[in-house]
Design a protein that fits this description.
Length: about 500
Amino acid sequence: MTGNANLYSHFQQHFPVDLDTQLLTDIDGCRVTYLQADKASARIANTLLQLGAVRGDRITVQVEKSVENLYLYLACLRAGLVYHPLNTAYTASELSYFLGNAEPTIVICASDALTTVESVLPANGISALLTLEVDGGGTLMQQAEGASDQANVVQCKGSEMAALLYSSGTTGRPKGIMLSHDNLRKNAETLVQTWGFSASDRLLHMLPIYHVHGLFVGLGCVLMCGASMVWHSRFSDEAAIAAMQNCTVMMGVPTYYTRLLANPEFGSECCSNMRLFVSGSAPLLSETFVEFQSRSGHTILERYGMTETGMNTSNPLHGERRAGTVGPPLPGVEVRVIDDSGGNLSDGETGNLQVKGPNVFPGYWRMPEKTLEDFTDDGFFNTGDKALIDPDGYVSIVGRAKDMIISGGLNVYPKEVELVIDDMAGISESAVIGIADVDFGEAVVAVIIGGGDPPTADEIISHCKKQLANFKVPKKVVVIDSLPRNAMGKVQKNLLREQFSTV
């Protein structure tokens, strides 16, 4: 093993001996080799450094999924820069916070977002604003054309930050999650072993890459064993069915699997070449698990992870995959369930889930007080999830202590939406909840208390669309006289979810 802890250095060790081996093919049949990816990432790395970025600087990326976006991620790793991906759905007000907090040296966006990004750029500290289009065009690749395709992989310590991703919380203020080279490497190595990945695998990659699932889980498994991918910009059930005959593994959120099951063309014949289907980012319904098994002959492997930790648990590759559970802890990962006083609970008892391991992030960007709050004295991270562990070690996630909503595999933090709604004239108070949705898992619903002349549901939704990414915007608005509260005055969202489960 090399002394360089840079994640890209470890990827390189697993590249095929013949670098002309295929890394991916896209939907148009365009073939990219490991050699092409290595040279392209070198050109981009050299370009970023020439523009003034230095080791440890953040590179903010808000672009659509593309092969060039993959090169950009690899370029940041090899140059010792911090990759900071953002969902393209984020609005100007959301971007303003991210850019101000991350303080990037270089920002890369699509040309149609230039005006918005320029309007919220910090007053200083930005060396360059570049564009990258979904077709690979833009000023980033234009500048990279003239750069050398040879670049050293910067020597890094394993503890150095490789990526910065943001996750909101109960306060509504997004927290920067610092992920180190070691966090990402060790988790990828564990998943390759646990899920049986090899160079002969071909991953059907339809996930976004601004998110842990597609970026670190999917890409990490492929690059850590010299495998290949079929690369799609987004999920389509028809395209997935067509692609499966040439793939061996698919990773998806539960919505992908419900949409496959809704397609009458989906069945065991489509899956004859597949060895594994993995589901994560949101709870998989037991009904989906059972129906998929019946229709396809394959048992979905469900696992559990977070932005802060990568993957923590997984149902086994060989062994019983249990519906409604996310499996035992991965090798090297410790999990425990405690009560509200911090005492350990016995098997089968529901409590607060905590995790510890080399996959767990070191802390929040520039929030030492929040880091201290979310870690125990003995190094366990408080996930905020409610769980139980059965006598066989299988973990079941039974609730979310922080009332987080997961819609289509994307996290929605109610407080962030509530702050936007409560800022409107005529709103006394709001409570945002998630209710069951067949397609997205959960749909966002706003329950409001009006004051005087409250805005209409359409006005509230329109206001939210201006301030929030579309996946956070309430699908429904309900007006009531008062919010149910417990003896401590806390809004009882469980009662609201029961009351409005069918709106």
